[in-house]
Amino acid sequence: MLKNKAYLDLILGDGYELVTNYMGLVDEKNRVTFYDGTVRVVNSDGAEIDRYREHEYLDHIAEHVEPYTYLKFPYLKKLGWQGLKEGKGTSIYQVAPLARFNAADGMATPKAQAAYEKMFSTFGGKPVHKLMAMHWARLIELLYAAERLAELAGDEEILDPNVRVIPSTTPSEGVGIIEAPRGTLTHHYWTDERGIVTKANLIVGTTNNNAPISMAVKKAAMKFIGKGGEVKQGLLNMVEMAFRIYDPCFSCATHSLPGQMPLTIEIKNAGGETVRTVSR
What we know:
By secondary structure, this protein is α+β, with helices and mostly antiparallel strands. The protein folds into two domains: about 1-150 and about 210-280, no CATH class; about 175-205, no CATH class. About 30% of the residues lie in helices and about 20% in strands. It contains eight helices and eleven strands. The chain has helices at about 5-10, 95-105, 110-120, 135-155, 205-210, 210-225, 235-245, 250-255, and strands spanning about 20-25, 40, 50, 60-65, 75, 95, 175-180, 185-190, 195-205, 265-270, 275-280. The protein has a four-stranded mixed β-sheet. The chain has a three-stranded antiparallel β-sheet with strand order 7-8-9. It has a two-stranded antiparallel ribbon with strand order 4-5.
């Protein structure tokens, strides 16, 4: 990819760039972790601006609601809702592989760490705002997973007969945060005396990325739609790429049975009038 000038120009161009804050789980050494850790948030310059444990998430994350969608827009509570705005001081944050790397100081396995360092060196340091780097980060996470699997397989504790802890009490409330492929995942449950869930609050990876996805799609459309509504070849795919970057599941979930996404782009003038419609 890096030896192909056309690809490299696309990766390093401003069509797929979004400057925000970044969130991810880290261990005690600020290395990327997926199952247990502390949520760390860094700003657009890479400086830590927030940190919290599972039960504290409501003190740090709030959700904005817009009338045109049922999907909420999470933001950093202490910075307040400022709208879909990028750049220094924004309250919008990103999650998923690239955000995890930006929020951490490294990886916990040697080969993944070497690949992590190479990626940031290639992009000129941290944090990386080029969204196409998401795919590179995802590959490094797969390398980490393979290394970690080998470590676990060689751990003597894997043969310990104590593989399950039987609950001895019935909790009334619990919060868990892990890293899913598509980003930081928060589950909060309340239960009754029988252990039946009575209330639940979830902030999943795609919800965390709702604002960034919306902003990324807008930037791609503005970049690749010419003046006067001129539509370049491959426009639909170029705009769709800004959406698919955030999760490989989107590549499948957004396709209909015929095998392609039924995408429609409406190009409007400054007065809000539709001047052209392009459909797949």
